Every structure is written in structure tokens, then in C-alpha cells.
């Protein structure tokens, strides 16, 4: 479990670092950040798939739709002097890998929203509605992750800075179909 958390955290950090170098002006922030985020998600999916392949496989089962809602409620404590004109974004993802014979598939959902700042705190809620065809949802783990990013200024001008914070976790099984699962995340910038 700790190894998976480490892989998810490292994948997020590496993906975000790559996106920072590739990021153009703030107007292109979402587009350029996506390439780094996609790289992080791909690395996390590979780690999750390797973890699932180490599990004992049961008899072949036909996949069925497993759907629900994952809500990430994020509270961000801001450092003293955080500029009120800074922009904060919250990105969340959920992913699973089905490797029960004869099914082999990767599923992921993600979303990004702007945070709302109030004094020394910012908050955001990212809601993901998923629908995954899984043969063994009760034994398929779900990787979860949240990245909070802040941008102040315009790249190439002074002052300009970016801050990032990442969080990752894992559900040991896919929540029951039709359920809503809420993850509360506290972090700081």
C-alpha cells in the first residue's frame, strides 16, 4: 500500500514538473499542464496495473458497468503573504485497472476546477462521475490523487511563481455501483 502511494506521489510530481517546464503563458496553462498530468496518470496506471497483476486471479467473469460519484473536498491553507490575486487550481483523478482474465482494461476519470480563496484559506470541490466496465470491482483497487497548483503573475515577467501540492491515496475496492464517495483532502500552499 505504501509503495503504491509512493508511486502515485512520484508520478504526480514528475508529471507536474514536466508540465511546469512546458507551460507557456497562463492562458495556455490548462492545455500545457494536461500533457504533464497525462504522463503522471499513465505512470500511475502502470504502477496500479502491476500491483493488480500480482493479485491472485479468480475465474473469468464478464464485465459489468460499475458507476458512481467520487467527490474530492479540498481545503488549502495558504502561507502568510499569499497574494490575493494568485490563481489556485485543483485537479483530481481516479483510476483503476481490470486484469481479470479475459478482461484487461484501464479506466480513469479526472477533473479540474478553480479554487475559491477567503483570507488564509482556499477551498475547492472536484466531482468525478465514473462508469467503468469491471469484472471484479470488489477486488480492483482505485488510485486517487489530487494536485493543487497556484500561479501568480505571467511567465516571463517578474514577479512570477508557481506552487504545487500533491496528495494520493488508494481505495482497496471500487465503491458499490450507484454510490457517492467523498474524500476530504487538506493541504497547503
As residue ranges, the low-confidence spans are 1-35, 54-58
Tally the beta strands.
Answer: 8
Q: Could you tell me the strand content as a percent range?
A: 35-45%
Total helical segments: 2
Strand order of the largest sheet: 4-5-1-8
The rough form would be described as elongated
Folded structure, characterized:
By secondary structure, this protein is α+β, with helices and mostly antiparallel strands. The chain has one domain. It contains 2 helices and 8 strands. Strands 4-5-1-8 form a 4-stranded mixed sheet, with no helix packed on it. A 4-stranded antiparallel sheet has the order 3-2-6-7. β2 and β3 form a beta hairpin. The longest helix is centred in the first third of the chain and has 25 residues, at 29-53. The model is unreliable at 1-35 and 54-58 (pLDDT under 50).
Q: What is the structure about, briefly put?
A:
The chain has helices at 2-22, 29-53, and strands spanning 64-77, 87-98, 105-114, 116-118, 121-134, 142-152, 161-171, 180-188. The protein is α+β, with helices and mostly antiparallel strands and 189 residues long.
Task: Offer a few descriptive terms.
single chain, 189 residues, alpha+beta, four-stranded mixed beta sheet, four-stranded antiparallel beta sheet, disordered N terminus
Write the layout of secondary structure elements.
Elements: H1 2-22, H2 29-53, E1 64-77, E2 87-98, E3 105-114, E4 116-118, E5 121-134, E6 142-152, E7 161-171, E8 180-188
Parallel strand pairs: 1-8
Antiparallel strand pairs: 1-5, 2-3, 2-6, 4-5, 6-7
Helix pairs in contact: 1-2
Amino acid at each position: 500500500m505504501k509503495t503504491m502511494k509512493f508511486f502515485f506521489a512520484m508520478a504526480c510530481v514528475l508529471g507536474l514538473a514536466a508540465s511546469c517546464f512546458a507551460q507557456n503563458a497562463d492562458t495556455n496553462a490548462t492545455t500545457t499542464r494536461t500533457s504533464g498530468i497525462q504522463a503522471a496518470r499513465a505512470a500511475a496506471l502502470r504502477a496500479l496495473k502491476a500491483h493488480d497483476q500480482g493479485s491472485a486471479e479468480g475465474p473469468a467473469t464478464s464485465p459489468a458497468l460499475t458507476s458512481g460519484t467520487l467527490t474530492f473536498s479540498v481545503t488549502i491553507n495558504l502561507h502568510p503573504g499569499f497574494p490575493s490575486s494568485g490563481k489556485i487550481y485543483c485537479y483530481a483523478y481516479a483510476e483503476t485497472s481490470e486484469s481479470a482474465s479475459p478482461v484487461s482494461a484501464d479506466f480513469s476519470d479526472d477533473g479540474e476546477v478553480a479554487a475559491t480563496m477567503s483570507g488564509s484559506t482556499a477551498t475547492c470541490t472536484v466531482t468525478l462521475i465514473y462508469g467503468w466496465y469491471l469484472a471484479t470491482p470488489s477486488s480492483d483497487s482505485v488510485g486517487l490523487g489530487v494536485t493543487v497548483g497556484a500561479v501568480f503573475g505571467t511567465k516571463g515577467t517578474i514577479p512570477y511563481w508557481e506552487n504545487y501540492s500533491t496528495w494520493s491515496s488508494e481505495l482497496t475496492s471500487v465503491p458499490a455501483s450507484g454510490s457517492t464517495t467523498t474524500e476530504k483532502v487538506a493541504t497547503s500552499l
